[in-house]
Amino acid sequence: MGLLPLFTSMLLFSWTTLNAALKITKVDLSIEPSAAVYRDTNVALRCKAEVLTFGTEALNRVYTIYKGDSVIYNKTTSSSEDLLYHLPQARVSNNGKYKCKISIMGEEKASEAATLTVEGMSTPILRFNKANITEGESVTATCLALGETGSLLFSFYDNSKEVENARVTSNELTFVPKGVGNHIIHCSYLVFVMPNSFKSQTSNTVTLTVEELSIEPVLKISPQDNVYEGDTVNITCSVSNVTKDYQAGELLLSQDTELLKSGKTSIHVNWTAHARTPMLTIKCRLYLRDVVKVVNKTISVSELFSVPTLKISALEVFQEDEISLTCRSEKLSYDRLEGEFFIYSLEPFDYHMVHKGNGVFIGKAKTIDFNYTCTVAAKGIKKKSKVLTIHPKVPVSTPKIWVSGSAILGRKVEIFCLSDTGTPPITYTLWKANKQNQIAIVHEFNKAANFTIVINEPGRLNHYLCKASNGNRTPEQSDKLQTAVIEPMTEAYLMVVPDVDDISEGHTVILICSFLGTPPVTVRWLRDSDDLNPLKTTTTNINTTSYEFVVNKEHTDNYYCQAENRANSVESNKINLVVGMAMWKKLLIPGTIILVVSSLVMVGFILFTRSRRGKRERAAELSVKPASPKSDDSLTVTLTHDTEVYNAATDAASFCDDKEGRVTNGTRGSVASLPADISNRSSYSIPATV
């Protein structure tokens, strides 16, 4: 390893070790002898720091003193003693907040702020370079603020009023006092310690005497009485009491705001009088240094003729109308005019207007707003009239007439009338059968007049029309209203073909809906079981329509129609439609019954036949039982007809061995025919011999 890297590593290690063993625990700033002192007190700021270090080696300390946010003092020392910053003979400019910061080996810490307040300011002293001056002469004043430091601003006062532009950072001011006589002057100053300022006491007063200048302006006017416009007036403006040492000033001669002439010692003009106002003021001004002296006189000037008035012949003007403009002066001084001719002119020049003499101009009105003025000239005097603004009106166009919505018999309806062009206000009149009905005045552009009427007659509203006017012209008339009156639906009737009693399955049924009301009419066929979904909807321009369909049993229901036009809707009567059975079904029922009955009879006969046969077989197989205890040789057979039960008795034990009534001795038995008289008995007995 080289020596340089080794040395650098050692220094870095030492720095890190020392920095780790260094701590600034506390920094205090105190003000001595106190934080509030009087002017001229010697003040010291003491900065004290408590520092913890490793070892006894002295370390460099960097102290920084702040006033507000500004650094006012820096010091680097290895001493551990307190730092003292001195403010000898403290002034108000030393007021403010101070703090101290210490930095050691990169470790920093600052104190809390301490505020110093210094009271007391020196009383200013005022001095002048002259005690007596003449009017317009300047003087220099000096305001002394002994011993004060910092940023100062001086003010000077003349008779308690601050001298204009007298606030200066310098303590000297050169100015010209205004007005003659004695001027009482004093001064004061401000010390700025941002963001505050401190004002001093008032200085001593000095009396300054200003003497008036001996020279004056002189104004002469001839003639001054019985002056008419156009007359020549001699005016002289001069300076009186001019001495050899007079420093030439400036003379200005003016009439109101009009400058007539300027000069040094004397001015003369031959002025042509005018009569813009009844009284004219002539002024002669003398400007000498900063002094202004003025003298003025007034003269009365009579008019030869008054300012002309421009008038239009018509009270209202329409575009392209013939118009006449007249330019006149109402007042004339005939004794001074002496037959002088007047010259009239119209401005601006317009080829539309022709001069017909004696101030009359005729021509046609323009299509836009326009301005005119006229000028009258005589004996070198010209006078212009005020501006005449002409607003040519736009004539109304032929109005249009219409209704809002539908015109329904028996109801109110709004009729509108509008001219597409025309200068408002426009008067609209509604007429009915050549009689004035209603009037409406519209004050806005392109806005229709509306009239409300009640419709009491059917047909059309062609007996209504409207007229429009916006001036003294023949009103423009609209066409007649062509709107048709809608008659509300009054009734609807439903009928069915064929008759309801003759309707059966498979038949074609026609529902016919008739109604009264203005077409077009929308008709809907409905049934009670589904009145929200029409069977059919149609629109017609006649008063009847139909709905045709083939029926089945499911069409049995109440049917009706609904008729609706632009006025209202009505419902018809209801028809109960009962769909009967088809004819082939009616014929099928008796045949089916006969077939069923025949089948039942056949089945019954077969069953009966089988039953009789079974009876005979069972009778032959009857067991033989003794008829009575008295006779062992007799066999008694008892047949019960109704119950088909057979009883046999025999004296001996016997039995049937086959289905044909064969007995045990092998002899075939037979049943003889029953006598007619007992064939219908419920029971009978037959003796038998074995």
Account of the protein in words:
The chain crosses the membrane at residues 587-608. By secondary structure, the chain is mainly beta. The chain has six domains: 22-119, Immunoglobulin-like, CATH 2.60.40; 125-211, Immunoglobulins (Immunoglobulin-like, Sandwich); 217-300, Sandwich (Immunoglobulin-like), CATH 2.60.40.10; 309-389, Immunoglobulins (Immunoglobulin-like), CATH 2.60.40; 399-485, Immunoglobulin-like, CATH 2.60.40; 491-577, Immunoglobulin-like (Sandwich), CATH 2.60.40. Helix content is 9%, strand content 47%. The strands form 13 sheets. Strands 2, 4, 5, 7, 8 and 9 form a six-stranded mixed β-sheet that branches. Strands 11, 13, 14, 16, 17 and 18 form a six-stranded mixed β-sheet that branches.
For this entry, give a set of tags:
six-stranded mixed sheet, mainly beta, 3 helices, Immunoglobulin-like, 690 residues, single chain, 53 strands
* CATH top level class name of the largest domain: Mainly Beta
Could you give me the name of the CATH homologous superfamily of the largest domain? Immunoglobulins
The N- to C-terminal Cα distance equals 165 Å
Determine the structural class based on helices, strands and strand pairing. mainly beta
Helix content: under 10%
